[in-house]
Amino acid sequence: MSVPTLKSSEIYKSPQDRTRLQSLQDTFAARFSAPPTFTVRSPGRVNIIGEHLDYSNFSVFPMAVERDVVMAVRVIPPGPSVVNGGGVVIVANTDSTTFPESSITLPQSTQTLVDIDPTRNDWANYFRCGLIVAQKYLQGSYNSELPELDHPNNHQQPPKQLAGLEVLVDGNIPTGSGLSSSAAFVVCSTLVTLLANGYNNVSKNLMVRLSMKCEQLVGVNTGGMDQAASVYGEWDHALYVSFFPQLTAKATAFPEPPALANGLPDDENKMAFVIAHTLVTSNKHETAPINYNLRVVEVTLAALALAKALGLSAPNSIISATTSSSSSSSDIDGHPLLVDLVLPPTGNLAAGTLRDVFELYKTTRPSSVSDSDLLQELVTLVDTHLRDDYTFSDLATLLSTSSDTEIVNAQLTRLFFSTYPVRYSALQLRKRARHVYSEAARVFKFMNVLRFSTMQYLETVAELGRLMDASEVSLWEDFECSCPEAQALCKVVRKPRGPHGSEPLGYGARMTGAGWGGATVHLVLQKNVAAVVQAFKDEYYRVKYPGISEKEMNEAIIISRPAVGTAIVE
């Protein structure tokens, strides 16, 4: 399935958004004295349930939103006749005060990559990421790493020098809001580079896999949910995104209320999702060593520790390959592998995931036990076998296959703590694994309610809301990525109201996105949307941020239907 080419009316339902697109193209022509060659856009996303599961290979349930990143592009082909712009990518932004124009010099050699400094929090770095991963893909550098994809050099195409570009960017996804503005940006920049350099049949799967690599280049060890939601989005459908055994995205509609007595649809009681930005900026790049990247390390080590405690080992594990082969490919710095890696080389750290433990555990249990029940069993086993006070020395002892402490420590550092540096006082493996398994169970239950519920409509909505509420509790207590501001917004929706003081404005509320700030998502009925918005303004924004303007509050609250995904604009 390829990234589609769509008319602006198929992408944007509101006249204001279509006007914004035209304004971008007009501004481009004024800035660069020529019209754009093409325009692409990619939306942000909100995750309804399934937080911090993607890098453990468990399924998630996000939807694309109507807010997006748009890039108008003019291609400057490489060659000696080019005087102005050849060999250079100029990236400008309609908000030039916040995002100043940047010039990226392209390497002369087809084998040299664009340079990037991941320690700098520079917005243009995200465009550099797209240039790098697209260039590597076009050169065939991902052939062995992503063998399932069709690679250009499979068709014996020689590497080409990258074309110069003039790019004007416009985005209306609040940065640091937890709505994946960075994912939308790198999807666009990767797509732009592929299209500009002659690779036109771009599959959606390719876009997800390549754009996942982008954020890793700037030091964020991300999973694939954000990119998948942005690329695969469909109007009026959320996405059941699975990562095991392979990436799939299944469009899923929400239940509808029964028709009114006159046969017309009951629009007032339809489900709606209101997104509220805490206005606490969540910068994954800057806080990654103590937040996002640390969680990736913790859940990976939790998987290995739990597998060892349960006596589970995969036949295709790294350690099995090491003991059955004399090959030096498993050596680290000239020494045989001395860390007990009993899981397959999957996940962001290529050392196994909690999903691998689940699959291995599943083979030891009767086939009649449901996946949801298996996950609950694993939650109990996590509580029994893991702790929340592991030190580096504890893990070295636990995972070591040798008494050579110096080599074991060096290998443990190399495998888990160096590619994406982290800082910690203790590794909380029990809490992190408990969240992953309990959240994965909630996603299973959420999907079963959507697909198979025999309850009355409002009972179904209430059950979905309860699962969202439970997710927020886990994010606050076990994964520790929510924040007091997110909790405050959730309480606004849950607060009993109405003539009898027993009716909340909404059915479910939770933090969404990476966390540590960012946004919250709230399940409400359409008839209550206006009241929810007003309550947010009166009970959160004006209390937390005295003097905040009406415009600022309106920008912080997003009411979006599930939107279409990445597209080339016709």
Task: Describe the fold and architecture.
With 570 residues, this protein is α+β, with helices and mostly antiparallel strands. The protein has 3 domains: 254 residues, Ribosomal Protein S5, domain 2 (2-Layer Sandwich); 115 residues, Alpha-Beta Plaits; 142 residues, de novo design (two linked rop proteins), CATH 1.20.1440. Helices cover 40% and strands 15% of the residues. The strands form 3 sheets. The protein has a 7-stranded mixed beta sheet with strand order 1-13-2-3-6-4-5, with helices on both faces. It has a 4-stranded antiparallel beta sheet with strand order 10-11-9-12. The longest helix has 24 residues. The chain is globular. About 3% of the residues have low confidence.
What's a quick, concise take on this entry?
The chain is α+β, with helices and mostly antiparallel strands and 570 residues long. The chain contains 18 helices and 13 strands.
Could you give the distance between the termini? 18 Å
> In this structure, how is the largest beta sheet organized?
7 strands, mixed
CATH class of the largest domain: Alpha Beta
Residues in helices, as a percent range? 40-55%
Biggest sheet, spatial arrangement of strands: 1-13-2-3-6-4-5
SSE topology sketch:
Layout: E1 5-6, H1 8-11, H2 15-32, E2 38-49, E3 61-76, E4 88-93, E5 102-105, H3 125-139, E6 164-171, H4 181-196, H5 204-217, H6 225-232, E7 238-242, E8 248-252, E9 271-277, H7 284-287, H8 292-310, H9 318-323, H10 354-362, H11 371-385, H12 392-399, H13 405-417, H14 429-452, H15 457-477, H16 484-494, E10 506-512, E11 519-525, H17 529-544, H18 550-556, E12 557-559, E13 567-569
Parallel strand pairs: 1-13, 4-6
Antiparallel strand pairs: 2-3, 2-13, 3-6, 4-5, 7-8, 9-11, 9-12, 10-11
Helix pairs in contact: 3-4, 3-5, 4-5, 5-6, 8-10, 8-14, 11-14, 14-15, 16-17
Protein name: Galactokinase
Family: Belongs to the GHMP kinase family. GalK subfamily.
Catalytic activity: alpha-D-galactose + ATP = alpha-D-galactose 1-phosphate + ADP + H(+)
